[in-house]
Design goal:
The complex is a heterodimer. Chain A has no helices and 9 strands. By secondary structure, chain A is mainly β. The chains are: A mainly beta, B mainly beta.
Chain lengths: ~110, ~120
Amino acid sequence: QSVLTQPPSASGTPGQRVTISCSGTDSNLGSNTVNWYQQLPGTAPKLLINTNNQRPSGVPDRFSGSKSGTSASLAISGLQSDDESLYFCSTWDDLLNGPVFGTGTQVTVL
Amino acid sequence: QLQLRESGPGLVKPSETLSLTCSVSGDSISDFNYSWVWIRQSPGRGLEWLGHVYYGGSTHYNPSHKSRVTISTDTSKTEFSLKVKSVTAADTATYFCARRSVRLGAFDVWGQGTAVRVSS
C-alpha cells in the first residue's frame, strides 16, 4: 500500500555517489516536506533526513536530501559498505490525512 | 534517552484480536510535541501507517483500517497499545511503534519491531 514510488534498487562502488528518487502527488510530496529513513536488515528504521534536507544529529554529511514539486531525492556521496541498506521516503498525505511511505530502495555497494 | 519496545504474541489465529503494547522508557508520552504511532511492514504491502494517539488520548486512524484498529494509552502514560480485531493472513507483518515529532513532522524514534503471524 506504499503511495510514494521509489526504484527498487540502486548500486555503486565505494566512493561513488548514489541518488535515490521518490515520486508522489500534489496531495503528498507536492504539499508537504519529505523525510528519509535507513533500515538495516532486521532492525528498525532510522531517521536519516527530515524536512527535505535536514540531517539529525549523528547523521554524516555524506547524506543529503532535496525536494522539488512532487519529487524528492536522497543522495549518498562517498559510498561506504556500511551504507548497504534499505532506504525509504515518507511524507504527509493531505487526502489520507496521515503519513505515507515509499516503496523502498535497496542500496548495494558493489 | 527515549526507548520504545513492542511486546505481544507472535502468533494470532484468524478472526481473533491482535493486541500489542509499546513500552516507553526515558520519557513520558504526556507531551503535546509528539504523537505515538503504530506502523506495520510486510513484503507485500510495504510500510503502512495504522494510526496515532495523542497526549490526552485523542486518536487518528488510517481510514483503510479504522473499523478494526484501536490505539490507546494507559493511565500512567508510559505505554500505548494497539488492537486489531478480526485479523486475517493479510495482517501478518512486523509491527513497529514509533514517536512522531510534531516539529519535525517525522518519526524520530522507533521500537525494534515485533513480528506477528496470523495462522491457525
